[in-house]
Amino acid sequence: MNNSAMSSTEIDIELLIKNMLSPECISNPYPVYKQLRSHAPVNGLLDYPPGTVPGVDTPYPAWVVTRYEDVDYVLRNPEIFSSEDPMQANSSAPSLMLVNHDRPRHTALRNLAKMAFTPKRIHDDIVDRLRTDINKIVDRKLNAEMDFMVDVAGVIPALVMTYLMGLPPEDYKLLVRWANAFMVSSDFTPEERQACNVELFNYFVAAVGKRYADIEAGNKVSDDLMTAFINAEYEGDTLSKEEVVLFCITLVVAGAETTTYFLGNLMGVMLEDAEWFSKLKSDRSLIRPFMEECLRRDGPPQRLFRLVLQDCEISGQEIKAGDWIAFFMAAANHDENVFPEPEKFIIGRKNIAKHITFGRGIHHCLGAPLARVEAEIMLNVILDKCEGVNGELANSKRQSGGLLAYGFATLPLQLIAKRGS
């Protein structure tokens, strides 16, 4: 009888893992995560890392890791869990910098990136321009019916990427499309995804090549991230031209889409509970904790993959060297043992700094401060210009193209202008 019960449980869990890639689970994965957290890691998830192409690339069966303690263990032990991604390396996609590197090269690359990714360059130099542009974006849509994901959230992060790298502002639409295809979270055909990967790579090969040529010719160039990557030097180490190209690509695909979903999720919380708008409007000190709780409860990044380098054990489950694991930061952020009542939106949690939406340790996201700046400016502009937000969550739709990100595909709403504006 016990054997029968065990068999039934195993079949249920296997089915749960198989159904994780269903549109229903992708658009609302948290009930499934809750079920999985009651079990040790289970093997069999066949999912796709960024840049790979469903229908062309063949996924490896992965162990699914969902408990906070276990996800934290994976993040804190890069010597056991390698970030080098064999699936992406064998795909048509350009490899990602830092994301897909291990020590010691990761340390060298991160030091070089820090030389370029200064607070001045990613904050001070763009804040005024960003605030001006967000004001224009919001002004154009005041009192109008719109899809916030297309008209606001989908514009800001890609536009920021054009500032940071000295690209033509109008190219932001190209960056949005390429990022969507790369991050496997939108509906593209395999051919479209492959074409986007090639277009993305060729675009930055040309842009970086021109910048090198201008520098060598003594032409004046802008002091942006692209130039900074080219000139970055740390203890005699520099980036190759190909590495500069790949850093630019990494920023676009990792920053544009994820931040778009973050901005949309913030507005989704306001539609969920209309009181948040008036609370934030009257007390702007609540904006930061509001953002952090949104990152915990509704954080866009769902999971990452790792290659196991040595035999280990996770929650009593033996994992062998050579195995593939998928660890879910979003599931960890909903672990009841760490965040009581995880489905509730509660700002001011004493342990909110423990959320791991942006990773941890050597792979903590370098772009996290930039995402927060974009969100904070957007919220302040909307609160300054508007007296409320009209919309129904029932009319929205979460993206269901891939399990990598949690966010809205469509978010219809109205930004109601202040009287007299």
TrEMBL record:
Keyword Iron assigned: yes
Entry keyword set: Heme, Iron, Metal-binding, Monooxygenase, Oxidoreductase
SUPFAM superfamilies, A to Z: Cytochrome P450
UniProt xrefs under Pfam families: p450 (PF00067)
Taxonomic superkingdom: Bacteria
Membrane-spanning parts: none
PANTHER family linked to this entry: P450, PUTATIVE (EUROFUNG)-RELATED, PULCHERRIMINIC ACID SYNTHASE
Membership in a protein family: Belongs to the cytochrome P450 family.
Name of this chain's protein: Cytochrome P450
Naturally occurring in which organism (per UniProt): Zhongshania marina
Phylogenetic lineage: Bacteria, Pseudomonadati, Pseudomonadota, Gammaproteobacteria, Cellvibrionales
